Structure formats: structure tokens, C-alpha cells
Amino acid sequence: MEDVVSRLSPKAQHDYKLVRRAVDDQDQAAYAELMERYRESIYYMLLKMVNNPDDADDLTIEAFGKAFNRLKQYQPNYAFSTWMFKIASNNCIDFIRKERKKRTMSIDTGLRNEDGDNVTYDIEADVRDPEEEMMRDQRLAAMRQVVDKLKPRYKELVILRYFKEYSYDEISKELDLPLGTVKAQLFRARDFLSTLMKNTKDTI
User: Fold this and answer.
1) Do 15 and 91 belong together in one domain?
2) What's the CATH code of the domain at 75?
3) What angle is formed at CA 165 by the lines to CA 160 and CA 167, rounded to 5 degrees?
4) What is the pLDDT of residue 13?
5) Which residues is 112 bridged to in the sheet?
6) How many secondary structure helices (H) and strands (E) does the chain include?
7) Tell me, what's the pLDDT at 45?
């Protein structure tokens, strides 16, 4: 392994050290530094692909989330940046394909089923009846119970981001944390939250 790492460029070797700190020591600063090193270049690559700043920003966050969740799988046979850009571009290609599929599905004309019959869709009014409101409140209450099981620092981030709908910049200022740290810790929080939700799926 040392021979493989030694063949990497100095920059790639530094990235590998950060990866090891993140994976072996659960070092949040290492996650944040990896993001800061490539966030901007990933964003501009994705912006060229989707030509929409909001989509590019969301896809950048999603790409790092996927990469961080798979970080144990990274091998230094090639640079971390190569691996990271491949994850981001593949994820973006999937997004573009889904968007194209959505655009080709006409609500007015509907779709044909296996028997060749035309199937149309009724668009419901964006107003919930009392029963739907009650079910929504119950789901939110159940979600709150799951969030309460998170570690305090993750719980605070999730509440600010998803319940109070703070932006990443607002969370950074509110908690006096670097933006990269906020995003890296939110990735971890979402991972923990997903695990907890799977264990309590019958109540949500």
C-alpha cells in the first residue's frame, strides 16, 4: 500500500491522509477539508453539465454525501480527486436522465399501459384535508422522536436545516462553525438519521 501511495502526487498523498483521518478517526475536520479542497471545482463542473446554479449546488452536496458514505471503499490506486469527480459526474448524469424522463411524460396526454389503453392522471389540489393534516402532524412528531435520538451536535444541525429551514450559511453563522464543517457534519447527521429511521420505519 505504501508503494501505491508513494506513486501519487503530493496533493493526492495529502488527500489520502485526510481520507484515512476521516475513516479511521472519524475526524470531522478531515471531512470538512476534503470538501473545501474540491467543492468549488466540483460545483463548476456540475454547473456546466446542468446549467442551473441551484441544481448544481444540490448535486454538489449530494455528490459529497455519496462519496463520504463510500469513503471506506476508496483505494489510492488513483487520486482521490479522480474518484470524487467520477462520483459527482455519474450522479449528475443520473439526475439529467431522470429530468429528461420527467419532461417526456405529458400529464395531459397520459401514458399507455401494457394493454395499450391511454392512462391519464388527476392532479390533486395542493390542499390537505383534516385527516391528511393529522397524519402529517403524526409523521412530524415521529420524526422529532427520531431526531431526538441523535447526538446533540447532529440534532442541532438537523433541526436548523430541516425544521427551521436555515441555509448552510445561516447555520454556519448561528453555530459559529466553518461552512465546510457544517456541510460535513450534516452528511454524517443524515447518515445517522437514515439508520435510525430504518429501525423505526413502522412509526413514520
Assistant:
1) yes
2) 1.10.1740.10
3) 85
4) 92
5) 118
6) 9, 2
7) 92
